[in-house]
Structures are given as structure tokens and as C-alpha cells.
Amino acid sequence: MAAVLVEEAVGPRTWLGESPRWDGVAWWWVDASVGDVWTRTLGEDAVCVWRTGRRTSLVQPEASGGVVVAVGQELYVLGRRDDGAWGQGRRWCGLGLGDGWLVNDGVADSRGRLWIGSIAPDRRPLDGGLLRVEPDGTVGQAASGFTLTNGMAFSADEQYLFHVDTFERAIWAHRVDLDIGEVFGREAFVDFTADDGMPDGLAIDADGGVWVAMYGSGEARRYTPTGSLDFVVVVDPAQCTSIALGGPDSRDVLITTAREGYGEERSTAEPLAGRLYQARSPYPGLATATVAVQKDVAVEKKRRM
């Protein structure tokens, strides 16, 4: 097993960095707890393009060149104005989950759908699910029986959806048929112990390796397609939250971290917590799929369960 220590942090400091994405030109991520949406084009400084003021759990590139952003229980499309500046988000659809429910991380598929996880009120065990959002904004539940749904990524052939349940300390491999948008069962890919930390964000490389950010251990790990640990990126902050592969040659690794739950004293004592870390991967990543939002759909809530 190979290990790399990354000591230099990049980018602005967040409270809860999450959902890093590469759109082919720039990196995106969110500060989930305060609702800031950030982007950084290579060679330029990071820019906060939208301050939602609400819990913001996901940013995902959109087919027309913008991004889809999950704010509370609603999905928005953020695009550029005629002058080239980023505008305010336009509501796409609501997820209709009811009081106390949360949504978390997600992923797009090659058909333009968005898959996103739901978390039950009070994080009730095994009541969360996987939601499937069609390009027209119709929402359906694809799977259930999870506690804290987190990172997701499709295999290169899109036969499997890999998905983290943080509180159950597991990465699941779901068999999927994207022609009909259905999930058919699941099997455990990796189970973790308390000593490992808690699995959080997820990415998959072109060789089938599964990367996972480990919250509590200061690591981003790569597992082979057979589930063996073979590469580790170590950073200073313990709270690694998510991971993405991208950059010009698809071999840059971007890791988000957090200082969530830190008091003022600890936040001051650990100034790198909440920063971004960048490393190099021995394996290239996969192209980031985009959400294909239908521009003429009504923004009224649609739901099919």
C-alpha cells in the first residue's frame, strides 16, 4: 500500500467543505453549513458565486454550463448572466420530503438524471433513501433503508452505483439499470470499523478504484475494484469530508475538510481544518456527468414515489 502526505492547504477556509466537482474547466465545492457555493478556475483565485444562507449540500455540473445546487429540500440551477457574471439560482424543483428531512450528497448519470440521498428526521436509523430526479423535475425514490446517505459515484460502465452510508460505516454497491432508472439490490463493497473513522464523500477512477474521504481519520483512501486498500492520501485535518478527481489530465485529487463542531479555541488551534487539499492520483478520474435540466419545466413540485 502506498501513502502520500499532503501538508499544504489551498483555497479558502470553510466550516463544512463538501461536494467537490470538476466541470472540465473549474473546480466547484460548497460550504454546506453556511450555504456558500465556491468555484475556482485553474490559475485564478477561488470565488464565492452564491451565498444561499441555508444548508447547501450539493453542487453538480449542469449540461448547459451552469451547476445544480441543493439548497434545503430544493434544487436550483445556477448559471451565468448575459454579462458573464454568475447570477442567482433559479428554482428547478422541490423534493417534497416533509418536515425535518434533509438531503445530502449526490451524483449525475449519463442520462442527465440527478441521484441524491435523503436523511430522515433526527437521523432515524435506516429510514433514509436514494432519490432519483429526472430532467423534467419528477422525483422518485430509488432505494431505501439507509441512515446517513453520503457520497455516490457510478462505475465506469454504469452498471453499479457506489454509495456511502456514513453511520452504518459502509460503502454499498447497487446494481442499476439506467435505461429505466431502477436499482436492483445491493451488496457491501467495504465495511469499516470505528478505528477507521467514518466514510463520507466518494469518487471512482477510470481503473475502477473507489476513493473515499474518511471523516475523523484525516485520510482519503483508494480501494481496488475487489475492495482492497492500496493508496492513502493523508492530510492534517481529521475531518475529511469529500473527494473528487479532475484537473486537465484527470489526475488531480481535491479533498474537502471541515471544522464543523469546533469551538473558537479549537478552530484557532487548528487553522487548516476546513481548507482544501490537492494531491496527485496514480489513476485518472472519470469525466463528470452533468444534470440535463429541461429548461421549460414548471418549478412546481413534482413527485413520484
Largest sheet features: 5 strands, mixed
Q: Roughly how many Å is the radius of gyration?
A: 18 Å
| CATH H-level homologous superfamily name | TolB, C-terminal domain
Q: Going across the biggest sheet, name each strand in turn.
A: 1-22-21-20-19
Number of strands: 25
CATH architecture: 6 Propeller
Q: Helix amount, in percent?
A: under 10%
Count of discrete domains? 1
Strand content: over 45%
- Poorly predicted runs: 298-305
Q: N- to C-terminal separation?
A: 44 Å
CATH class: Mainly Beta
Shape: globular
Under CATH, the topology is which? Answer: Neuraminidase
Count every helix, treating DSSP H or I runs of 4 or more residues as helices.
1
Q: Helix/strand/pairing class, anyone?
A: mainly beta
Mean pLDDT: 94
Helix-strand topology string: EEEEEEEEEEEEEEEEEEEEEEEEHE
Task: Provide a brief overview of the structure.
GO terms for molecular function: calcium ion binding; gluconolactonase activity. The protein is mostly beta strands and 305 residues long.
Textual characterization of the structure:
This protein is an all-beta fold. The protein has a single domain, classed as TolB, C-terminal domain (Neuraminidase), CATH 2.120.10.30. The strands form six sheets. The chain has a five-stranded mixed sheet with strand order 1-22-21-20-19, with no helix packed on it. Strand 5 and strand 6 form a beta hairpin. The longest helix is centred in the last third of the chain and has 6 residues. The radius of gyration is 18 Å and the shape is globular. The C terminus is likely disordered. This is SMP-30/gluconolactonase/LRE family protein. Belongs to the SMP-30/CGR1 family.
